[in-house]
Amino acid sequence: MKKIIILLLVTSLGSVSDAQSVLTLKRGIELGLEKNYEIQIVRNQQQILDNDVTIGNAGYLPTLDLSTGYSGTINNTDQRKPTGETVSNDGVHNQTLNAGVNLNWTIFDGFNIQANHSRLKELKLRGELNTRLTVEDFISQFTTAYYNYIKQTISLKNLKYAVLLSKERVRIVEARHNIGTASMLELQQARVDYNTDNSKLIKQHEVLYTLRTRLNEMIVSDNIDNKLTLADTLISFNPLLNKEEILDKALRINTELLLAQKEGRLSQLNLRMLQSENYPYLKVNAGYGYTQNVYETGTYDREKRLGFNYGVTLGFNLFDGFNRRRKQKNAKLEIENKQLEYQQTELAVRADFANMWMAYLNNMKLEGQERDNLKTARANFDIAMDRYKLGDLAGIEIREAQNSLLEAEERLVQSQYDTKLCEISLMLISGQIVSYVE
Description:
alpha+beta, Outer membrane efflux proteins (OEP)
């Protein structure tokens, strides 16, 4: 009997644990990377590019075709011989049946095949970078939403506390009003303030619900209304980021910069492929086939052919209306544009880093200042509440002290959240955003 009771307890505890399972930042990101539809799509696109990197797709290999066909003609013919005799035939049905294997192979086309193969490899690498960029953007967005949910949860607790304080104020004023030491106006104002705080609390529940739905959407939860319990309850940030290290990594492994480099490499390969038209081309072909002709008139009524054919083609485009020169000139300009775009992207990365680093330092200073302000606001409110209970402080003054306390709490959590956003942005710029998963 005891074993059964213990088993039931273990089972019930297990079910409670499952129902109240918490979501860590790392686990949430892992779920999103595994199930998020946008990431699945970009990974499939990357796989397509991976599949395209073959020597056959580049043009190194020959093509081999098997073909068969049947054709026929039905004609009325009039034939006149030198003797003047005329022979007429109506409805002459001639038939042709053929089947064969044909091989075509480009041996040389001005290094176009080699350039195309290199282009396919670069497209594959660009696809990997696009996947990486999508993954980094997701991690950044999810981390931001995760800590925003924590921020709004803290704000909810602060508003609940504000409602409790307002409720206590109403209780005190009602007691005074009952014994005739407080006016009806003061009581009504206390109730108005209490209702105002309640309205803010109701709106805050709506904000949290929206954020919770967004988090469930990002991890592709089966139940979009699933109640989430986050492992973190406070917003923590790294105050020890190194400026030189982050800037160095931003200029070396920033995904957008790497993509700009790939675009420049692809533009160079495009020029190489166009320059292949400056060379002659060499192609070979061979085939083996069977042909049968059936004639209703003439010397023979049937003809069969079975055999091998081959050929070599050497060619060179002498003049194409100056289009070859025009395309190559435009390709060189495109290379120059890609270089300028890379420099523009690098400048934007430097500017984003500078702005974000300054914001990071300022928000950390602001966070320390707001901590001190919150201590002062709490002390002021405690003093004000004691005086209010003794009847030495007016209702409007306790309300101001209460609002100052709530504002100080909100400013502190906002400064913590802003600092965390700066940290996330710096990690994204320097290509280290995946550290939140590690």
